[in-house]
Amino acid sequence: xxxxxxxxxxxxxxxxxxxxxxxxxxxxxxxxxxxxxxxxxxxxxxxxxxxxxxxxxxxxxxxxxxxxxxxxxxxxxxxxxxxxxxxxxxxxxxxxxxxxxxxxxxxxxxxxxxxxxxxxxxxxxxxxxxxxxxxxxxxxxxxxxxxxxxxxxxxxxxxxxxxxxxxxxxxxxxxxxxxxxxxxxxxxxxxxxxxxxxxxxxxxxxxxxxxxxxxxxxxxxxxxxxxxx
Length: 229
Fold this sequence. Notes:
Blueprint: H1 3-27, H2 35-49, H3 54-66, H4 68-73, H5 76-81, H6 83-88, H7 90-114, H8 119-125, H9 132-142, H10 146-170, H11 176-198, H12 200-228
Subcellular location: Membrane
Protein name: LrgB family protein
InterPro entries: CidB/LrgB
């Protein structure tokens, strides 16, 4: 089988499964059938069944991962269109972003240390709460493992999107701004998508917080590495 044919098959199967999964999820909204959960599970089963290595698969579909960058930047469009909201709440948003970064990084690293996990996993977990393009850039400066980083980011996003509404209900959080900020800071792209389902204001705030948290974490990555290790 030629490399071109393998590349085309990986592309068609990945996108085909994803869109079929989205259609299925619209009919039955359960956690297991979420596209970010069910599609990867099916892909792993197919790779194992066909004896295709992860390296071969990611090598043929790496440009799909690259598209995460432009798609993340696309969230800036609604942010730009709602600058009035940002100007009104810039101080609370700034404080929230810094608090989210400190809590996410420190809690991840210290919990990993309590569980005596290897340092490579600690460094990879440190950036789990920011979206993939930023997480990979930050982890590179900290010495994290790209494959582990991508896995931890996806798990964090799916978990945050799945339990976010329940947590807000339990904590009696009713503010749309607070919900948007929480989703954007804790579960990045997946949480931001959920925030837009709640409302435009929630989505805009989630987009802004997600991007700011990613940029600040990348900029501070060398300092974080020195302080934590």
